[in-house]
Amino acid sequence: MSELTGKTALITGSTSGIGRATARSLAARGASVVVTGRNAARGAEVVARIEADGGTARFIAADLTDQEDVARLAREAGDVDILVNNAAGASFGLSADITTEQYDAMLDGNVRAVYALTAALAPRMAERGSGSVINVSSGAAVMGDVYNAVYAATKGAVNALTRSWAAEYGPSGVRVNSVAPGPVYTSAPVEYLDLYIPLIPLRRVARPQDVSEVIAFLAGPGGSYVNGAVIPVDGGLTAVEPPKSPAAAA
Ligand SMILES: NC(=O)c1ccc[n+]([C@@H]2O[C@H](COP(=O)([O-])OP(=O)(O)OC[C@H]3O[C@@H](n4cnc5c(N)ncnc54)[C@H](OP(=O)(O)O)[C@@H]3O)[C@@H](O)[C@H]2O)c1
């Protein structure tokens, strides 16, 4: 028996990056994993990898900007004990240049889908008396920057939802938390991510596993008294002042 044996985990955006690493981390701890995303070929690869490692997984295709798809995903996933709201989209640009379509896609995928999936699945966890919802936020929620006003706003919303849901579902034994990564080697260009290295006290960009291990901790018995937390997983980036000189950043 592993610590998540008998649990079902739904991880959105698990066809790549942090979500894929999380699916593998939770499956390795014994959870039966529901992999989801739009790309069925990558979804099948993740399922095959988990099964090759001795785990259990299945794939459900869904576009989280589509309300019908989100509702169908919640139905087809069935009873879920661990919900990881990880998927997000990002269009970066000056605020005057962001189109209505880009704005809607970020709000719909990053906030409305998180809200709808949680509203569909958390009450069923509450009826069973236990469960864990983990939202993947971002350091962008607490650090202003040009080019990412809308994306940052969606992550601020995720943090606010996390705290509200901790109050709403906590009394029924359902814990709700967020992890807030800094830069992680996933789909963004390495050259862009590496610009952060001098600003990160640990002087390295995260690997997806650095984040998935924290999510797995929150999902498991070790996180049993953590509720309503937004946990930075950013090597200290949002905790400290940036270095005052190039020498200090070395
Ligand atoms: N990487 C970073 O530096 C970083 C930093 C801070 C926070 N984060 C957060 O971490 C989370 C994961 O990011 P990542 O970098 O691992 O992402 P990623 O590698 O780019 O993967 C994004 C995942 O989300 C899915 N996805 C995107 N839009 C979707 C949609 N409309 N419907 C369904 N699935 C969708 C993609 O699946 P399909 O392509 O199959 O649809 C994919 O599995 C996000 O919430 C992101 O905001 C990342």
Structure characterization notes:
Pfam families: adh_short_C2. Belongs to the short-chain dehydrogenases/reductases (SDR) family. Its EC number is 1.1.1.-. The chain is α/β, with parallel strands linked by helices and 250 residues long. The chain has a single domain, classed as NAD(P)-binding Rossmann-like Domain (Rossmann fold). Helix content is 43%, strand content 15%. It has 8 helices and 7 strands; from the N terminus they run E-H-E-H-E-H-E-H-E-H-E-H-H-E-H. It has a 7-stranded parallel beta sheet, with helices on both faces. Helix 3 runs parallel beside helix 4 (100-128) and helix 4 packs parallel to helix 5. The longest helix is centred in the middle third of the chain and has 29 residues, at 100-128. It is globular, with a radius of gyration of 18 Å. The N and C termini lie far apart (46 Å). The model has no long low-confidence stretch (mean pLDDT 97). The structure holds NADP nicotinamide-adenine-dinucleotide phosphate. The site of NADP nicotinamide-adenine-dinucleotide phosphate (NAP) has 28 residues, from helix 1.
Keywords:
15% strand; 8 helices; single chain; 43% helix; globular; 250 residues; 7 strands; SDR family NAD(P)-dependent oxidoreductase; Rossmann fold
